[in-house]
Q: What sequence folds into this?
C-alpha cells in the first residue's frame, strides 16, 4: 500500500485541495466540454483524475450525454472458452466488462437493461450488468407442483420479460417432459415476479404454478416480445408429420400472456398456408425441414419468425405486423452466403440495433453476423465462439462503477 | 433633495443617450476598450443583454474585470463575425433544457474561428463565454476543447489541462484493467 514516489499521493494521505487539482477548466465548463464526447471516449477519460471520474458517473451528466449521442449498442455474450463470465461486448468486438456467473449458465435472448442466465438443470439468475447485482431464483417448485415425477430430474427452460406498466420483471419456468414421446405428461409452467423495487416486500416471493396449453409447446423455442411469450409447437409434431396437408402446420405459434399469466389462441404462422402456392417462391425445399429451420425472435417490439433456408443461405424474416388480425409481412430476405458455413441448420437468435442493422447468431459455428439490409452487406463480429447472445439496452457510461470513489 | 433630483435627471439623460447608440463599449481587466454592436451583444450574451436592458452599460466602457483584453477581443470578434453569418433557427432557442435543445455542431466559420487560437487563448475565451452567458460561443469553444481530448492518453490530458493525478498507484492499475478495452482504437 506504500506509495513509492513522492508524486503519488498515498491512499490515506491528505490530497491537495480540489482547486489545484481541477486544472484549467471550471467545473461547469468541463461539464459542457465532456457532453460533446461519446461514451467510449469518456470512459477512457475516467483515468485522468477523481473529479473527472465522478462527473462522468453523475446521473444528470449521463442523462444529458445520452440524449446527445447515438446509443452505443452492447451485446451480452457467453463465450465458449469463458464459461464462468458474461462478457459485455461492443460492436467493434471489444470486451467492455466481465460479469462472473456460475459455469454453464447461458443467456436468454433478451433486449433489456437486465440479463437472465439459466441452465437446463433448474438454475436461473437475473443480473444487473451495471451494478453487478444478482437475483438468484429459488429452485424449489411451486407448492402445487411439489412431488411430481417430472421434477426428480428437472429439465428446465426459462423466459424473461419486463412488464411495461409496473416495471416489474417476470420469469417463466418450464419443466419439460422427461422423454420426448411422453404424451401422458404435460410440461409444468410456473411464473416468478421480481419487483422493480425488490427487497421491500415482506413475504418471500415464490414460483406460482400455471396451467399448460392443450397443445404441446417447445420450451426451447421460447421468445419474449414485450409482455407476450411465444413458443413454437413441440418438436414432436416434426417427427410425427406425414404430409403437410393433413398434419398440424409446423409454423404454428402458441402465445402466453406473461402479464395476465394465461395462454392465448394459437397463431397460424406465415408459411404453411402458402407453401405450395405461387406466393411461396420456392418449391424445392422439404416441408419437413420447416420446423428446424424456423426461429422466433423479437424485432422492434414485434414477433419475428426467422426462416433460414439452409442450403440456399437465404434467411426470410417475417414480422407479425398485427397480432389481432394475424398479419404476417415478409420484411427481409437476406442472402448470407458465403460467410456462413453450410453446417448451420438454423439461426439461434436475431436482434435489431438502433440503426436498423440486424444481428444474427448462428449456433453451430458460434458466429455473430451484423447485417445491413440497406447495403446488403454482412460483417461477422470478430469475437470468440459464442454460445449465447443477448442485447443490453443500458448505458455504457453506467456500466463501470468499480470500487473507486 | 434637489441635488438628488438633478442627479436622477442626469442619469435619465445619459440612459437616453446610451439607448440611442447602436454600439456598446466594453472594458477589459487590463483597461482596453472594445466596441461591439448592441444588437449582437444583446442577442449573443445573456449577461450583456441584461446589462443593456437594466441600463448598467457605461458609455465610457463597461468594466468586465474578469476578462483580459485578448479574450475580450475574441469575444467582440466573434460577435461581429456572427452578425455577418446567416442566423440559423437552431441558435435562437439555445438555452432550453437539454432534452429539447437543438444540438448543433459548430459551423465552418466557427471552427476556423477557434482553430486559430492557442490553448491559453481558447481556455480564456471559454471562461469569458461562460461568464458572459454566451451559449453559442460556449458550445463552439467547448466543442473545440472536446476535440482536443479525443484519442489522448490520460497523461497527455493531464499535461494539457494542468490536472494533478490524484489516484493511487493501485487505483490506477485497477482503472487500467477495467478500461483496457477503451484504449484500443475503434
A:
Amino acid at each position: 500500500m506504500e506509495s513509492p514516489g513522492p508524486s503519488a499521493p498515498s491512499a490515506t494521505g491528505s490530497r491537495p485541495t480540489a482547486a489545484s487539482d481541477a486544472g484549467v477548466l471550471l467545473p461547469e465548463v468541463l461539464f459542457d466540454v465532456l457532453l460533446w464526447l461519446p461514451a467510449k471516449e469518456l470512459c477512457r477519460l475516467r483515468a485522468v483524475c477523481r473529479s473527472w471520474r465522478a462527473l462522468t458517473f453523475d446521473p444528470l451528466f449521463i442523462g444529458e450525454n445520452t440524449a446527445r449521442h447515438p446509443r452505443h449498442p452492447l451485446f451480452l455474450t457467453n463465450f465458449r472458452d469463458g464459461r464462468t463470465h458474461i462478457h459485455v461486448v461492443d460492436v467493434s468486438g471489444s470486451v467492455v466488462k466481465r460479469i462472473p456467473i456460475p459455469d454453464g449458465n447461458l443467456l436468454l435472448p433478451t433486449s433489456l437493461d437486465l440479463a437472465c442466465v439459466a441452465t437446463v438443470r433448474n438454475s436461473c439468475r437475473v443480473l444487473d450488468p451495471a451494478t453487478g447485482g444478482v437475483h438468484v431464483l429459488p429452485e424449489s417448485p411451486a407448492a402445487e407442483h411439489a412431488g411430481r415425477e417430472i421434477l426428480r430430474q428437472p429439465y428446465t427452460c426459462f423466459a424473461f420479460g419486463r412488464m411495461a406498466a409496473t416495471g416489474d420483471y417476470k420469469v417463466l419456468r418450464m419443466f419439460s417432459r422427461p422423454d420426448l414421446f411422453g404424451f401422458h405428461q404435460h410440461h409444468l409452467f410456473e411464473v416468478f415476479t421480481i419487483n422493480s423495487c425488490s427487497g421491500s416486500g415482506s413475504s418471500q416471493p415464490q414460483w406460482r404454478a400455471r396451467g399448460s396449453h392443450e397443445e404441446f409447446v417447445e420450451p426451447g423455442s421460447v421468445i419474449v416480445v414485450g409482455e407476450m411469450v411465444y413458443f413454437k409447437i413441440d418438436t414432436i409434431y416434426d417427427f410425427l408429420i406425414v404430409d403437410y396437408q393433413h398434419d398440424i402446420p409446423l409454423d404454428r405459434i402458441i402465445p402466453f400472456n406473461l402479464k395476465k399469466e394465461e395462454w392465448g389462441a394459437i397463431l397460424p404462422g406465415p408459411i404453411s398456408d402458402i407453401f405450395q402456392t405461387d406466393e411461396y417462391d420456392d418449391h424445392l425445399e422439404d416441408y419437413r425441414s420447416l420446423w428446424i429451420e424456423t426461429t422466433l425472435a423479437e424485432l422492434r417490439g414485434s414477433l419475428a419468425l426467422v426462416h433460414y433456408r439452409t442450403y440456399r443461405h437465404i434467411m426470410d424474416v417475417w414480422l407479425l405486423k398485427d397480432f389481432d388480425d394475424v398479419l404476417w409481412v415478409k420484411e427481409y430476405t437476406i442472402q448470407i452466403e458465403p460467410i456462413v458455413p453450410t453446417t448451420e441448420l438454423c439461426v439461434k437468435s436475431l436482434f435489431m440495433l438502433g440503426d436498423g442493422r440486424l444481428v444474427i447468431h448462428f449456433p453451430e459455428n458460434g458466429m455473430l453476423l451484423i447485417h445491413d439490409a440497406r447495403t446488403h452487406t454482412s460483417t461477422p463480429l470478430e469475437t470468440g465462439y459464442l454460445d449465447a447472445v443477448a442485447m443490453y439496452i443500458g448505458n455504457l457510461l453506467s456500466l463501470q462503477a468499480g470500487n473507486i470513489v | 433633495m434637489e441635488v438628488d433630483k438633478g442627479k436622477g435627471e442626469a442619469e435619465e439623460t445619459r440612459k437616453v443617450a446610451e439607448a440611442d447608440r447602436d454600439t456598446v463599449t466594453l472594458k477589459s481587466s487590463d483597461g482596453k476598450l472594445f466596441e461591439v454592436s448592441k444588437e449582437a451583444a444583446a442577442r449573443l450574451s445573456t449577461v450583456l443583454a441584461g446589462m443593456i436592458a437594466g441600463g448598467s452599460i457605461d458609455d465610457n466602457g463597461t468594466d468586465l474585470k474578469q476578462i483580459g483584453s485578448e479574450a475580450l477581443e475574441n469575444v467582440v470578434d466573434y460577435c461581429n463575425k456572427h452578425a455577418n453569418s446567416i442566423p440559423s433557427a437552431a441558435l435562437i432557442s439555445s438555452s432550453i433544457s437539454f432534452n429539447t435543445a437543438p444540438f448543433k455542431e459548430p459551423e465552418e466559420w466557427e471552427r476556423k474561428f477557434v482553430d486559430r487560437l492557442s490553448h491559453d487563448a481558447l481556455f480564456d475565451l471559454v471562461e469569458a463565454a461562460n461568464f458572459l452567458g454566451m451559449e453559442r460561443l460556449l458550445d463552439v469553444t467547448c466543442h473545440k476543447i472536446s476535440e482536443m481530448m479525443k484519442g489522448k492518453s490520460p497523461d497527455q490530458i493531464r499535461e494539457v489541462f494542468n490536472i494533478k493525478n490524484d489516484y493511487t498507484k493501485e487505483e490506477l492499475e485497477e482503472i487500467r484493467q477495467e478500461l483496457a478495452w477503451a484504449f484500443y482504437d475503434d
About this structure: The first helix of chain A runs from residue 18 to 21.
